[in-house]
């Protein structure tokens, strides 16, 4: 997590740094800081809280004028969010910002810095003291010597008062990009690279770069100069706007039909990457985190139904430390919006160690997971800014449907007429998702009542259970209401003891032949006083409130229409509770630490 930025140009750096940090704020937003070399020395300003706090503090200073600077927006890992733990950190003439985790910082501190005074609780401060300790008169040497000692993940931007024409960058495992034009910018992602940049470089692991106003020179950690090719600018470089919506999350919910249409078109229309022809495997793994894992739960049902091949779905944090039974004949599908989730990236690496073929289903072009997967399917959700994912999740579902159909086709596990019907249905699915958005007013009314409760439950069976899991996560992460998702048949094995008069239970009744079983579960909780809200495309359910969802173009794709009311429910509940919807507490959009 954390976002880093650097500017080296001919105008005042501070406004650019603040603006860049606002674009990177999705990566972490509990504190922020900038450092600017003002022609005489490096001056620093750091503030707990949002970038706006930092911006006001910077405005009040008259010594923060200079053309070279670095900045950071933080998601705390080592030490609480406060002014002194905020980056940049300083030692002697060096000031630096860091994204990642230095795993051996305690050892380094004990071995090399026993007498050093630390002013923060961060792992990062060790790095700047080490550089300073290694420095006599050559910045690059001091940085390279330090980089070789570091374990973990790090993207660093460093400035030194003795070389105020240069930003030094170091990368291992955390992303870092450099844009060069007649000014240079350095950033964790493309959104914060200057629009004046003509050349873009994506740093590789084990690289150091010396970035002046007009060029970047790359080295390995032994300081051998490296030839480096430029990268393409992606089409999504322009800043995303709210376009009249009050929050990015709402805008992104309404962008779902387009996200699904574009994703389906890319793979069913065969416009770009043709999906790979791989041999029929014994078993398939799907690995992901959070909502992407929930998309995987739906993917499993679709792939198993169409291919009859067993699919195991695992959270990446468990998969990476297990002894997964993967081998050359068990493809591993890793799903990730950001393409940078540390556990998911580690899962790809683990799967490859075992000889498995890896598929990334990724939204962010050229992200680490996309680059490291053997095959990549890009979801076409566009930039997602709200921390709680909506359109990327929907695009992941669409990609998984397309992959399931593709597998069934190449392995001959399903009749061609069935597959052609499914393709036809998938091609039209976005139309039904658009119709599903029409339930907003009803969901707003239900949300108004939900906003006052402490707990809620989501139950479902099959795809309905996968949806219950996603709906529960969405509601808890943005409204802070405690909620749980259960396979509907499981509730009576313990949790039903929590149901009392008025407890809200959302029953996600997917069209999977288990509607009667769901009705029994609704009856069980109703009998104990629960207020049941059924989400269903059938008109038969007996519940206190029924939300009639739009039927998908095929029952196998019902998750795509039934998730819409549940997302709107979470959004409006959080809004009634006055929560910070796009930036919920304690979270960040891109989870680049494990
Ligand atoms: C929840 C949410 C997270 C992410 C998870 C994985 O709304 O967004 O649960 O789904 O952190 O992130 P990616 O997909 O970037 O790997």
- Residue stretches low in confidence (pLDDT < 50, at least 5 long) are none
Q: Which radius of gyration do the C-alpha atoms yield? A: 25 Å
- Average pLDDT score: 94
> Which class of the largest domain in CATH terms?
Alpha Beta
Q: Number of DSSP strands?
A: 24
CATH third-tier fold name of the largest domain: Glutamine Phosphoribosylpyrophosphate, subunit 1, domain 1
**Strand arrangement across the biggest beta sheet:** 3-2-4-1-10-9-11
Total number of distinct structural domains: 3
Secondary-structure content class: alpha/beta
Overall description:
By secondary structure, this protein is α/β, with parallel strands linked by helices. It folds into 3 domains: about 5-225, Aminohydrolase, N-terminal nucleophile (Ntn) domain (Glutamine Phosphoribosylpyrophosphate, subunit 1, domain 1, 4-Layer Sandwich); about 240-425, 3-Layer(aba) Sandwich (Rossmann fold); about 440-594, Glucose-6-phosphate isomerase like protein, domain 1 (Rossmann fold, 3-Layer(aba) Sandwich). Helices cover about 35% and strands about 20% of the residues. Strands 3-2-4-1-10-9-11 form a 7-stranded antiparallel sheet, covered by helices on one side. It is globular. The model has no long low-confidence stretch (mean pLDDT about 95). The site of fructose -6-phosphate has 14 residues, from helix 8 and helix 15.
Structural features:
594 residues, alpha/beta, Glutamine Phosphoribosylpyrophosphate, subunit 1, domain 1, Rossmann fold, 3 domains, seven-stranded antiparallel β-sheet, 24 strands, 22% strand, globular, binds fructose -6-phosphate
